[in-house]
What we know:
Elements: H1 17-29, H2 38-42, H3 70-74, H4 82-90, H5 94-129, H6 136-166, H7 170-185, H8 191-202, H9 208-221, H10 224-233, H11 241-248, H12 250-265, E1 274-279, E2 282-288, H13 294-305, E3 316-318, E4 322-325, E5 339-340, E6 356-359, E7 363-365, E8 368-369, E9 378-381, E10 394-400, H14 402-406, E11 428-435, E12 445-446, H15 448-457
Helix pairs in contact: 5-6, 6-7, 7-8, 7-9, 8-9, 9-10
Amino acid sequence: MLAFSNPLFRRSRGPATVFAQTAMLLIAGLSLTCQTGLISQTFAQPPGSEASANETESAAPSNESAPPSANGVDGGRVKDDPELIAKTMSEMPEDIRRDAEEIYAEFRSTHEELLESMLKLREIHIRFNNDVDRSREATKAFRAQQHKTWDLMQKQMEISVKVFRLLPSPEAASYMVTMVQHHFDNDIYDATTFEAAARLIDIGQNYRYLFLTAARAGISNGNFETARKVYESLQPDELEKVDMANKHFLDLLEEQYKEEMDRMEKIDRDALPQVLFKTTRGDVLIELYSGEAPSTVANFINLVEDGFYDGMDFSQVVPNMLALSGDPTGDGRGNSGKFLMDEHDNENSHHALRGSVVMAKIPMGEGRFIENSASSQFAIFFLPVTSASSNQTVFGRVIEGMDRVSAMRRKDPSKTDEKKIQLPPDAIISAEVVRKGPELPEPEYVDVEAELRKAEEAGLIKRKTPAK
């Protein structure tokens, strides 16, 4: 057993037959996974596929993904057996039955709300493509409806897991299967995704992505016992590169996770500065570690208040790794003109977990960086990275909207396909300091040219001499 070794995942007084009944139903029908048509449309490029990232507010809805038909939105779904649902509820203790009735009613109502939202999104898309309404207002309406539908999808995922804890619902299980695969494809490894993947494995589902998702989400959320069991159950050729690294560094990952959780318990989070990014994927809220990285946080807040990040692309979004922004040139070399003293060696400095915000530095290759070369570029990690905190300053973390960060369009400069149409990256529409926090010292800047000379003299880098 994987998920249910954790007592928090199961109501001890729930009927033991529920999961066996669900498993039998799934064997008969789970392969007909919930083809709602929601994911492709909701995950399509937001308005702006034909324009630069700085013109996202006025650009048009994309043709990247064709809108689903009515059948695609609500057709072909595995159906629940109302009699079995009612019978299961009738056999429950009263308090659990009330919970089950409430959550199942919410599951049904959210499905209808999600369907309505998806159809509205499709309507806007069709009207645009048919030249009925190509106005700026239509573009804004498309984006707003897209974000609403995305949020409903995530809400229904959480509700489906709650239903699956208590009731033999193939519809909930089917939705979980679809969404876990979607989350795996887009590096969304939250606690709900972990539980969904682990529960599906427990009832005998054998998709490889379920196992890899359970392991990655387990590592991201502190469920290391499950992650170990999953990796031990897989053959080496079933692991991807990131999973090989996770398996190799599992003990260190667990140690760093526990240290970080202990550290966060001692911090008054209500006093931490917060920055809100409005992005092309929706809002992202970040809290900043002003106590452990005061210079870095002060610099970041200054840049936000100066409007530096407004309209800035996420110039790199690398699968299983990170989303990077803050580069005004878009080619990896951009900066603000000022460079920061490193703070990764400060007392109580933070480790890099899923959602951590880390200052990018000038790379030297082989995982090494020029000292004190952080400026304006920052990365948000999709998964924990054991080596980051020994080289780079971790100065914050995403506390809301990490699913939106993970959903951003992949843009990996190391992999180019000239035959493939290159759609524009996602971007920060605006950045705002929504909580200033305690008074901070002035940022501590350095002479980066001196740092480059030091690295060159030490034989760490070789700089090109301009041709005469």
